[in-house]
Amino acid sequence: MKHKLLLTTLILGAMGTAHAADPLSAWKDTAAKQSIEQWVQNATNQDRSTYIPPQKRYVVFDNDGTLWPEAPLTFQLQFAIDEVKRLAPEHPEWKNDPIVSAVLNNDLKTVAAAGEKGLMQLLELTHSNITTEEFDQRVANWVGSHRDNRFGCRYDQMGYQPMRQLLDYLRENGFKTWIVSGGGIDFMRVIAEKMYGIPPEQVIGSFSLSEFSLTDNGTQLRKTMKGAFYDDAAAKPVAIHLFMGQRPVAAFGNSDGDLAMMQYTAANPDYKTFGLLVHHTDAEREYAYDSHPPASGKLVEGLSMAKEKGWTVVDMKQDWRTVFDPKSCVPESPKQ
């Protein structure tokens, strides 16, 4: 009897250790998780024809809606709105600007209806005519002092736990992880390393040209809106080629705006690639949408293309044990 009890204890202990050591513990053991693990095993096993050499293991991730939420607004747009409110008292000349009036009156419908033109106006007011160092500090201050209105967590605490685990898992298996997003490159670089372990040089996003000048104290780069490049849809493969210089072997997104990046990756002629789309289906723990997103992240064509291409579609409600890490996303009263 004692031997049986000892054996049972050892087995249960081993099972518990194995579960605790699961690098993808925030994922349920469904087909989505299995497809990830199988592809990684095939790509890293030198005895298989699907082996990918370490120097070719470049993988790309969209950010908004893939690594953190983009509903009800993208975090960067919320930052721009909060910055307009903070800076407005110093700029009385803004008072007659309709988009500023909408922001100050919390009229988000008008802000959203202004589309790309309105967004560019907000970005010009809050993202230009300042040094790159000042902009970085403004983003860091905002991240450290503002919280999401619904969840009450700081924005840098709201990375999806399953995707953060996936980033770690891929890196542990020799993959180099990149962000390729429509979000601003300077905005994301402030927080990407802390949140995702992705260094600034592996962040690709929308950008405009800065101006270099000599100053009494040395040199400076000043942000402008010149030469603006919006890194979305067909522009993503262009940016990947420009910044990475090689075609990825895996791509992870959540919207039709990521399809060109995923198609470009899937067409890699040398290796068996992997594609994954995050489908927002969990209204209780996050948001539920596809064809009618709150602001951005429409996913219609991608769902049908995933079947055709054999991409993995992650059902957030069914495939994830957790959405946000309960240890890091600790709700408090929003500080706005």
Automatic annotation (TrEMBL):
SUPFAM superfamilies named among the record's database cross-references: HAD-like
Signal sequence, start to end: 1-20
Keyword Metal-binding assigned to the entry: answer is yes
Q: Which domain of life is it from?
A: Bacteria
**InterPro entries according to UniProt:** HAD-like_SerB, HAD-like_sf, HAD_sf
Molecular function GO labels: metal ion binding
**What residue ranges carry the coiled-coil annotation?**
none
UniProt KW Translocase keyword: no
Task: Fetch the CDD domains from UniProt.
Answer: HAD_like
Entry's Gene3D superfamilies?
HAD superfamily/HAD-like (3.40.50.1000)
What keywords sit in the KW lines?
A: Metal-binding, Signal
Question: Could you tell me which PANTHER family the record lists for this protein?
Answer: PHOSPHOSERINE PHOSPHATASE
What is the name of this protein? Answer: Haloacid dehalogenase-like hydrolase
Originating organism: Buttiauxella agrestis ATCC 33320
The major lineage groups are: Bacteria, Pseudomonadati, Pseudomonadota, Gammaproteobacteria, Enterobacterales
